[in-house]
Amino acid sequence: MNNRMRWYCNPLLLAGVLGLGAYGGRLCFPEEPVQKAQKGLHPYEAYEASERCALCHKQISLQYQQSAMAKAQVLPWDQAEYFQLAVPHTKIEAKVAPVEAGCINCHAPQAFLAGDIPPPKAGAADPKADGVSCDMCHSIIGFEGDVPVNGNFAVKPGKVKFGSRKDAKAVGHETQYSSFFKGSKLCGTCHDETSPYGAWVKETYREWSRTPYAAANVYCLSCHVPPAPGKAAVTGIERTDVAQHIFQGAYSQAMLNGAATLYIYPLSKEIRAGKPFDISVVITNSRAGHRIPTGSTEERQLWLRLEVRDANGKIHHIPAGIAPGDTPENSYSVTVNKPAYRDLGTMMGIKDFKGIARDSLPEGDRLFRKVFLNPNGEETIAQWYTVNSEAFDNRLKPLEAVTEQYVWNVPGDIAKGNATITATLNYRRLPQSVADLVNIGKVPILHVAADQAVVEVK
Ligand code: HEC
Ligand code: HEC
Ligand code: HEC
Ligand code: HEC
Ligand code: HEC
After folding, report:
1. Which of 51, 340, 387, 431 is most exposed by smallest CB count within 10 Å?
2. What span, in angstroms and rounded, lies between the C-alpha atoms of 361 and 102?
3. How confident is the model at residue 268, as a pLDDT?
4. Which domains does the chain have, with CATH numbers?
5. 243 CA → ligand 4 middle, Å
């Protein structure tokens, strides 16, 4: 544990001394070390229920209730991955045992703080164990160590709610300004993660910190908690920039739609039957302040499909080639349905488990992803069992374009006349094969972008 002493130097006093040379008081003094929130530190009762906050912070509460973060422990896939996969795995594999509490540190921090590990299943729990609550987040005072990661936030629950305003005048509680509520590090404490094997398995904060957005002080909040005129509380004053607690991401068609843009251009105006034909697609991550996909990259799917509709209405699929850094055996960069994720069988106690379809999508499309490998070198959906997360990464970087080159071997019998080439970029949170294995129903496919070009078949 890193409890190095930090020193705080009073800038006003320091300026006074340097300018006037006449101050005899103490300039620098040791700061109380910030300590990571510990398992069993506070009972559930140390935090107020989010419904209480809703009495006065009506809009903010209605917004926040819709977000996955408010229900981070009780959504179907969260329940399934924790109870059906991770917890049983901790009983088999000693190395991963710490994740039984580790998952809860971020997903239901109040259950973690209460030492309620594993927390009761959805529906039975104290609602404070459902996810990240209002009071929990507004009790965070900093983090322990040098970088925000692995739920290393420190908390101070009580009457004082921390926030980013110096002039807030609350009723029923106190407020205190904290610069921590303006930047991105607060988010980084839970949005960056390493596995028990030391592999980076979530790095949204690290990704963001190297972008032009970070350089321009465009924080996570700028996009996920944007300012709008209104009141922060029903009895509060009118403000121009009230923080809208939207916190949408992987579940939201509105967030995904247009997050990246497409531009398709054929390299010649004419297609000739029986001849190869070159097409390029330029893809730009134009709206996300991190890579797309980010976060739970082991299971997020982003894929580009190219199709041609010929003059007779017949659809021809244009397959993607293997991307640089990939091989046909791995096929990390192209959709396939070969059996994968064999480690799920061990976790679920299924004998002779052969694996499930890796992508459960039509084959041959370009995939943008980061590959996670387990100790056996196999692709895994279990981030906690990840030894190597650097095997392949072609995700879209913010404000950067990538060009995908396609060569289409045009069939000899294609219809003459106008043909329309369509490029479509889609997103899904989780391969359907995984959802089916753990019985959580249909995972929707969200539209990101599309573009078309018309060419003439001669
Ligand atoms: C009885 C009404 C009431 C209740 C209940 C209430 N608040 Fe407030 N709160 C206010 C008012 C009024 C303000 C000031 C708004 C302003 O200045 O625009 C405020 C401000 C805040 C701020 C802003 C601090 C800042 O620096 O910007 C935070 C954070 C906050 N409340 C959190 C909470 C949380 C968390 C709860 C539930 C545990 C809660 N409040 C319950 C009335 C309430
Ligand atoms: C105490 C831990 C914690 C902190 C602090 C935290 N998050 Fe989260 N956040 C989570 C967890 C856990 C999830 C995953 C929800 C789930 O399981 O579906 C999440 C999900 C999200 C999502 C995605 C929701 C979706 O629908 O896909 C967004 C966006 C998000 N957080 C933004 C933020 C921002 C911005 C901050 C900083 C202001 C922040 N988070 C701080 C734990 C945290
Ligand atoms: C410039 C705007 C912008 C900034 C800055 C930004 N995001 Fe996002 N975020 C988006 C958009 C757009 C999406 C939807 C596309 C996607 O999933 O990547 C998104 C998606 C997400 C998701 C869901 C991703 C997934 O696929 O599961 C999470 C979690 C998230 N953001 C957290 C953060 C955190 C934490 C920060 C700061 C470190 C941050 N975002 C900064 C725009 C932004
Ligand atoms: C993941 C952490 C997180 C959660 C959960 C969260 N907030 Fe906030 N909240 C923030 C941050 C960060 C800010 C400051 C935003 C800014 O300055 O742009 C903020 C700002 C506020 C403000 C001041 C708004 C303003 O602009 O004056 C209030 C009030 C507030 N939150 C109440 C709540 C309530 C009520 C809930 C639950 C329904 C909640 N928060 C959930 C992180 C969080
Ligand atoms: C360091 C904090 C942290 C830890 C530890 C952590 N998670 Fe998460 N988890 C998150 C965040 C943040 C997200 C949201 C990322 C995104 O939306 O892409 C997330 C996303 C998820 C999702 C995807 C939710 C969805 O609806 O798509 C599942 C499932 C999940 N986590 C389960 C677990 C399990 C099981 C463990 C323990 C083995 C665990 N998490 C450990 C922070 C954490």
Report:
1. 51
2. 32
3. 85
4. 1-33 (no CATH), 36-243 (no CATH), 253-457 (2.60.40.3880)
5. 7
Task: Report the alpha-carbon distance of residue 31 to residue 69 in Å, rounded.
Answer: 32
Please tell me the residue having the least CA distance from ligand 4 atom 28. Answer: 232
Å from CA of 350 to ligand 5 middle: 24
- Which amino acid makes up residue 368? F
Please give the Cα distance from 410 to 272 (Å, whole number): 7
How far does the centroid of ligand 1 lie from the alpha carbon of residue 63, in Å? 15
235-256 confidence digits (pLDDT tens): 999 999 999 999 999 999 999 9
Question: Looking at residues 189-200, what average pLDDT do you find?
Answer: 98
pLDDT tens by residue, 330-343 = 999 999 999 999 99
Name every protein residue with a CB atom under 6 angstroms from any ligand 3 atom: 184, 187, 191, 204-205, 208, 213, 218, 220, 222-224, 249-250, 255-256, 259, 287-290, 292-296, 300
Q: Using one digit for the tens of pLDDT, what is the confidence trace for 396-417?
A: 999 999 999 999 999 999 999 9
Q: What CA dihedral angle connects 350, 354, 355 and 357, to 10 degrees? A: -130
Number of the ligand closest to the Cα of 134: 4
Q: How far apart are CA 450 and CA 261, in angstroms?
A: 8
Which residues 6+ apart lie within 8 Å of 391 measured at CB?
A: 332, 371, 372, 373
